[in-house]
Design a protein that fits this description.
single chain, alpha/beta, six-stranded mixed sheet, three-stranded antiparallel sheet, 9 strands, 32% helix
């Protein structure tokens, strides 16, 4: 791990506004990273994406996705937790990438604009499968990013917000293999917010639950993602009958 922990500093006195009113952050003093792969899990609105974005901004990455070299902005997301996060590194890394599924379209357009203005268009697209991300399906573009842009030659931090959004179950398994290759290199650290029980199954990963206050580490089998998916697959008819009761 290169990013060792995050210390929460200068927390505002007024915590009634989002994102400072998030339950998982109340009383939180630090977030520790002990594994090469860390997952953030929790219900919608629990703060996973907000914390991941704050880490990205604090690490110098673009808030809407990309690396520290990608500079574009399409919307003001309001107050950020980044001003209250102090990142501790050993050693500090400057390489990496922040993937936001919800703004990946904007990132793809940004890359197209760079390629259009570059005398070496093919070189720009080389990191994304050799062609515009817009000319690939949603899932293909994500896999192209993971395969060609994420490399384990240099030390890097990768922050992924719901990477499963465009991936079929089979391609989620492909992503697990990519994570494994990176972990074996010893040069990559991943922090991901996800709802996928497939991705969460990565062996030895640390899972931090944002449904707790403050957030805490949980086992795979303790996550709602595992429990509900397992129950549904084993007892589908019963669960559907309960769900559709009049």
């Amino acid at each position: 791990m290169f990013l060792k922990n995050i210390q929460v500093v200068d927390w505002p006195d007024n915590t009634s506004d989002y994102p400072f009113n998030l339950s998982a952050l109340q009383g939180l003093e630090e977030i520790q990273f002990d594994k090469a792969i860390t997952y953030f899990v929790g219900e919608n609105g629990s703060g996973k994406s907000s914390v991941l974005e704050a880490i990205a901004v604090s690490a110098g990455f673009n808030s809407e996705g990309g690396s520290r070299h990608n500079v574009f902005s399409t919307v003001d997301t309001g107050p950020s937790l980044a001003d209250h996060f102090h990142l501790s590194w050993w050693p500090k890394v400057t390489n990496g990438f922040f993937l936001r599924a919800e703004s990946f379209f904007n990132f793809s357009t940004y890359i197209d604009n760079i390629a259009r203005d570059s005398p070496e268009e093919s070189r720009v697209y080389a990191s994304y499968g050799g062609r515009s991300l817009h000319q690939q399906s949603h899932g293909e573009s994500f896999l192209s990013l993971f395969t060609h842009r994420f490399r384990h030659k240099n030390k890097a931090l990768y922050l992924l917000d719901e990477p499963e959004a465009a991936l079929t179950p089979m391609r989620q398994l492909a992503l697990l293999r990519i994570l494994w290759d990176h972990e074996q290199s010893g040069r990559s650290q991943f922090i991901m917010a996800t709802h996928s029980p497939i991705l969460l199954a990565y062996p030895g990963a640390d899972i931090l639950s944002f449904d707790s206050s403050p957030l805490r580490s949980v086992s795979y089998e303790q996550t709602d993602h595992y429990i509900i998916t397992k129950e549904f697959l084993l007892h589908r008819d019963r669960m559907l009958q309960e769900l559709f009761k009049s």
